[in-house]
Fold:
Amino acid sequence: MKKLKFGIIGAGRIGKIHADNLIRHPQAEILAVSDLFAGPELEEWAASRGIAIVTKDSEEILNHPEIDAVFICSSTDTHVPLIKKAAEQGKHIFCEKPLSMDIRQTEEAIEAVSKAGVQLQVGFNRRFDHNFKRVREHVQNGAIGDTHLIKITSRDPGPPPEAYIKVSGGIFMDMMIHDFDMARFLSGSEVEEVYTQGSVLIDPVFGQYGDVDTAIVTLRFANGALGVIDCSRKAAYGYDQRVEVFGSKGSVTAANDFPNTAVLSTEDGIQSDKPLHFFLERYNAAYVDETQQFIDTLLLGKAVSVNGNDGWQAERIARAAKLSMQENRPVKLSELQ
Amino acid sequence: MKKLKFGIIGAGRIGKIHADNLIRHPQAEILAVSDLFAGPELEEWAASRGIAIVTKDSEEILNHPEIDAVFICSSTDTHVPLIKKAAEQGKHIFCEKPLSMDIRQTEEAIEAVSKAGVQLQVGFNRRFDHNFKRVREHVQNGAIGDTHLIKITSRDPGPPPEAYIKVSGGIFMDMMIHDFDMARFLSGSEVEEVYTQGSVLIDPVFGQYGDVDTAIVTLRFANGALGVIDCSRKAAYGYDQRVEVFGSKGSVTAANDFPNTAVLSTEDGIQSDKPLHFFLERYNAAYVDETQQFIDTLLLGKAVSVNGNDGWQAERIARAAKLSMQENRPVKLSELQ
Amino acid sequence: MKKLKFGIIGAGRIGKIHADNLIRHPQAEILAVSDLFAGPELEEWAASRGIAIVTKDSEEILNHPEIDAVFICSSTDTHVPLIKKAAEQGKHIFCEKPLSMDIRQTEEAIEAVSKAGVQLQVGFNRRFDHNFKRVREHVQNGAIGDTHLIKITSRDPGPPPEAYIKVSGGIFMDMMIHDFDMARFLSGSEVEEVYTQGSVLIDPVFGQYGDVDTAIVTLRFANGALGVIDCSRKAAYGYDQRVEVFGSKGSVTAANDFPNTAVLSTEDGIQSDKPLHFFLERYNAAYVDETQQFIDTLLLGKAVSVNGNDGWQAERIARAAKLSMQENRPVKLSELQ
Amino acid sequence: MKKLKFGIIGAGRIGKIHADNLIRHPQAEILAVSDLFAGPELEEWAASRGIAIVTKDSEEILNHPEIDAVFICSSTDTHVPLIKKAAEQGKHIFCEKPLSMDIRQTEEAIEAVSKAGVQLQVGFNRRFDHNFKRVREHVQNGAIGDTHLIKITSRDPGPPPEAYIKVSGGIFMDMMIHDFDMARFLSGSEVEEVYTQGSVLIDPVFGQYGDVDTAIVTLRFANGALGVIDCSRKAAYGYDQRVEVFGSKGSVTAANDFPNTAVLSTEDGIQSDKPLHFFLERYNAAYVDETQQFIDTLLLGKAVSVNGNDGWQAERIARAAKLSMQENRPVKLSELQ
Structure:
């Protein structure tokens, strides 16, 4: 049984999640993990998982002759340089979103990957969510006819700390980039024009960094469909991730996931628990699936299902959405070229 | 346009509801209303509805030559004598449930009706409920295949006053008689055997009158299906009226009705309002429909859909259920004959 | 017991609905009904309801000395002249939406009403819907904190005939005017700016009249909240009328109403019936309630809860929404003045 | 970090599931696996999980000096002898349900365990289900007041093969034993009396072995509450596992789990997918949790939460339920002693 050898670059929370999911695949083996802050804690973690090499230097991974593929889970500003080097070394790449904050750089990364003939999968984990996948199946198999409207609700249970807000790239690149990808995933069409209404309603700190915490983005797709995404940095009741696709023959919706189905009825009314807390709970299985599929795809020598172009398209929508808000006008994606 | 002339015997809450529903039918007219406690209040009520005759004496209605049909909404002990007299006078009859507390008397009433060739509809209003009708349609059209299990939940928002408990005839005849009829309605089969577990869990006053306030009745139907009804005199969250029919090809359930679909999500969880309060709210439309259908049936000269036999069968099940509880053993309905 | 006397102007479907709901109020009496096409059919209808006068001439109603109030249910172009005349005659007015297609005319009507000191209630029946009322209660009592987002879904089961489309005033004035009022009703704030994306996706006939059949309108409210309405002339599964209000402490949603709660489970999946067919089914009780409340308000000598200003505001939003679509840019309502 | 050493006896489907869940615990290690049919396939499976010993002889595990605890996943008739031997060897025991088909034998096993001072956890995995745990929390924290009614629905997606039916011990011991345990788990009280209605409605093969495929069992608890379990060997729509507890202050229900939340609305109605297919899907996380908790309990030197007494009580209810059906009468559990 052939085994693929992996290296993990960046061992923060998401890097460790990918590592544990990799280990669950019988044909995957992790040879090395790198992190700028590697130390005894990471060494213990690696030892318990049978990972031989722990290093602060990602070059050690990129140059390791036996490593077939790398997971890039470091900070966004390192993504493009790491992708380029990994591609040069002929290694397949799984990279977290966004590929970069700069579309030119993203394009360079994609070009490098293309030239090297390696695979690049982007971490749009929500495409692997059981609910959204089922919605897309209904859309794809014609159950709702031609798509007319796409609606996405995207609300976090609470805002990140100020230190993160400062470097996040803003709500469009940091948070809604997932929703822009979801819009493409569900519509099967490209976004041509966007219009953004944004506000600072939750915490003035967002305004201090030129960011907003609440936004509605309207989309116009190449196939004529319209879309709308509403986004908030704070939903008091927890993580709110729903979609709806409406078409000529009907609609399909996906509601939130909940920790249980218990319903309490008393003289005060009918009550149930809040949705699963946040992305780690909601997308737990999706993280597993995106990793398993990445491995399976490489083993089969096929092309990944979520690639650099998907990352690039979502980043362009994010950039147009921000520009629309800044200039309070609809922005065509063609303007960006 | 032909008009049917009606008399209302017993002008309590339910009598007035039937009267108002009668008036809504363009081919129905109420000529008279009788009540033991008729007085100025009832006269004003009757005047506002254009009802000419208000009397304490039901004979005035029974003997009125122009009246085609009567609604018997007086106390249960008066049902059988009134049915007999109305039948003798050739009047069609709508009678509230139960027909009587005594199966022999019920049989006499049915015989009188049969001999006179008039129609007798029994007030099993739940057969006209939008949810239960839809469940039965699914059963009847074969959507769930052969029926294996019937489950009925029947819980009131609160117990009646002691004065009522005393003369109610007990939980089986007063409250569950509706459920016994529902079991027959949904199964399309007759009950052959019952077993009852009953308890006094809500208020000791029930025990003082040899009654219970909580019961589970298991049913065995002639077609082999099994059934179970759970019943409580008090659900803190309100009126709880649900059914489920399970068969070889699937199941069909009916949930409660609610005053609205609003769902509130906060950090405390997900909340919605309690079900519609009680039978007047839940079965409001069903009361209208049973009256309208009674009139329509008479106008067409057809046989009513819920007749004396339906009343008789439900009463026999009630009697068997009570006997089962008293002797703590399964009771066959054939024992009652 | 004091009785208010009413006249109905325009005896189409909605006029007859209002008439029947009026009759149900013990303190309301209809003296006359007028319709351009009055004939034997209307006379029979009026006779069965005890309405003495049937006429083709609305003047007969407007000049009738005993009539306290009129229902204006004729075509939109007649609303303003009729309101003016009724006001001059000191009659209270219930008028269907929109008051007019022209904001200046609407303003003249409001002025006439104000000068005459009569009441003018506008037929925004959805404010009386059990679901939307409950949503608003939650918003008003602070359950969701400060309002951040308002989302309204508004989809008809099918498009009107071409003859109607031609004179409808377009999707914004004809259909979404209800949603614009709902946005104001739920937010408790005024709309300051709108942006519209519209498309012809259902039937090219809409495009022939400069209209669209699918639209997304983004709203910005004076209190900082954002809103979005998605609208379609045809939902294959029926009338789709849902709202959501999201705020600092949570959200409240209202789902559709259904004809029953029956759920069928088979090897093919879980199935239930479509929502209530269209506005007559969904808003049946709301029509009753708006009429009853109009009567009660007049009897108490109070000001109506949905007045001319509400009509005017909704019409302005509709006009701005249309302009936004035509010029593909956000439009401030202040531009309209 | 202390590690517990485990042996697995019986490497069928459930044995392998427990093994994989054990491996996920950082303080658990499997030293050996035994199976009557051990061969190359099992050896490969064991090798991939780092399990050193593969044997046909369970004695090799029971006598292994380093093994701290065993999982007994072999056929039911071997449970008691294996428990006795394991206890004699001072090993802790996790045993699948039922402990045996014979209450005397079960008692002997429990006595052996008690004498040896080892822990015995019984595989009532449903106690670890997220839904049922939440229901019990509501019951335990008083949210529904005193318990009046307990309702359990237990339906498999399809019957087992005849070969299994023959040796299954019948529906009460094989299938409903889980429900009898659930009844005790939810009520926090002991069952005192049972009454069973059973039928062969799905497949005559059940009747050939003196078994039924459909049953309703009514329960009376020591604390006065009543209960009812309905059970079917075949639900066309899949695995149906729901509970409801009703009390003086309200009720709490748990619905099924579904593979996704997608809802499709078309002109045919509203549709969603069937529940999770069967116990492996529905109770996947529960299997993980029961194993993890078993390990944690042993590490802490505490008593397990589901012990031999729980197995014994459920078996007694199963025996009483069968006797009740055979004799068509209510059976008191005290009769069995």
